[in-house]
Amino acid sequence: MKLPATYKESEVSSDELLAVKDLKVWFPIKSGIIQRTTGYVKAVDGISFDVKKGETLGVVGESGSGKTTLARAILRLVKPSLGEAYFNGVNIVKANRRQMKEIRRQIQIIFQDPYASLDPRQTVSSILFEAMKIHGIVRNKSEASKKSIMLLELVGLSEEHLYRFPHEFSGGQRQRIAVARALAVNPAFLVLDEPTSFLDVSVQASVLNLLKNLQKELSLTYLFITHNLAVVHHMSDRVAVMYLGKIVELADRDSIYHNPKHPYTFQLMAAIPLPDPDAKKKEVLLEGDVPSPVNIPPGCRFHPRCKYATEKCKKVEPLLIRRDGYLVACHYDIDFSADKIVGEASNE
C-alpha cells in the first residue's frame, strides 16, 4: 500500500498562529517474518484547520477519534505521513533541527496524566530549571531560581514547593507544576491534551480557571483537547468535532452546542446531562462504537451509526464544506427537531 505524494506548500494567513493542511498520520501494520506492511492504522486521515492568535480551539470526540495523535503530530512527537502544519509560517513537518528546537520552545504540551508526565526523581526546582537551561531562557542558577519562584506563584503554588518531589503533591498540584514547566520557556501556544481528566471535579474547576486567567495575562493561544463537552464549551472560542480521524464539524462554540449540523455532533450534544435533576430531556442514544481505523467504512465514516444514512452515505464520502458559517461533512441538511432530512447540503 503506497501513500500518495504530498502537495505543494501553501501560504498561511498572517493572523493564523497555527495552520494545519490535510494532515495525515498513518501507522503501518507489519506482519510475517520479513515484517511486510499489510495495512495502515489511519489515526489522523486528512485534517485541515487553523488556530488564530489568542483564541482557544477545542477538539472533541470519542476515544479513538485521533485527538491525541493529532496533538502529538503538531509537535512532531509522531511523524506525520502526509500534509503540512505551519506555525508562524514555518512548516513543522519539514523543519530542520534548529527550527524544531525553536518551535518546541514556542509550542508546549500539557499531558492529561500529571502522575506520569513529571519525573519522579527530580524536584520541582530541577524540573523547571531543566526546561529553561535547554532553551537558554536563563543565564545562571540565580536567575533560574527567581524565575521558578515567579512561575510557582503564577500557578498558585509557593517557594516552599521548589524542593519537593512530585509524589509529595496532590493531582491538582502536580498539574499546576506541569503548567509551570510549560510556561518556563515563554511559549506562545499550548496544546492541552485532556489536562483535567485525571482530576477531581472540584480541582478541575480551579485548574480550568487558572488556564483561562493565564491565557489573558500572557496572551496565550490554546488547542484544547478533551472528551468533556461541558469543559470545552467553557474553555473554547471554536470547536472542532473529530470522528475516526476526520473533522466532521467546526464552528463557534455556541453554534456547535445549540444548533449542530452534523448527526454525530447532535448526538454528542444531546448526551450532555442537564444540571437540573428535575428537568426532562428527550433521550438520544449514540449506538455502537467507533469503527476500527484499520477498516474504515466506505463513504461517510459515520453511516454505520447514523439513523439518517442513505445509499449515498454508504458510497460517497462527504467533503468538509462551509455551510451557514459552519464547516460540515454531511451530504444532507437535517432538521433534528423534526427528525428528518430536509434537503441536500450545498456550499454557501
The largest β sheet comes out as:
8 strands, mixed
- Supply the helix-strand structural class: alpha/beta
Q: In which range does the helix fraction lie?
A: 25-40%
In the CATH hierarchy, the third-tier topology is known as Rossmann fold
Q: State Rg.
A: 22 Å
Average pLDDT works out at 88
CATH superfamily heading: P-loop containing nucleotide triphosphate hydrolases
Concise account of the structure shown:
With 348 residues, the protein is α/β, with parallel strands linked by helices. It is built from ten helices and 14 strands.
What's the structural blueprint in terms of helices and strands?
Elements: E1 16-31, E2 36-52, E3 56-60, H1 67-74, E4 82-87, E5 90-91, H2 97-106, E6 107-110, H3 124-134, H4 141-154, H5 171-183, E7 189-193, H6 201-218, E8 221-225, H7 229-235, E9 238-243, E10 246-252, H8 253-258, H9 263-270, H10 311-315, E11 321-323, E12 326-328, E13 332-335, E14 340-344
Parallel strand pairs: 3-8, 3-9, 6-7, 7-8
Antiparallel strand pairs: 1-2, 1-4, 4-5, 9-10, 10-12, 11-12, 13-14
Helix pairs in contact: 3-4, 3-5, 4-5, 5-6
Explain what this protein looks like in three dimensions:
The chain is an alpha/beta fold and 348 residues long. It has one domain: Rossmann fold (3-Layer(aba) Sandwich), CATH 3.40.50. A hairpin with a 2-residue loop joins strand 4 and strand 5. The longest helix is centred in the middle third of the chain and has 18 residues. It is 29% helix and 25% strand. The strands form three sheets. Strands 6-7-8-3-9-10-12-11 form an eight-stranded mixed beta sheet, with helices on both faces. The N terminus is likely disordered.
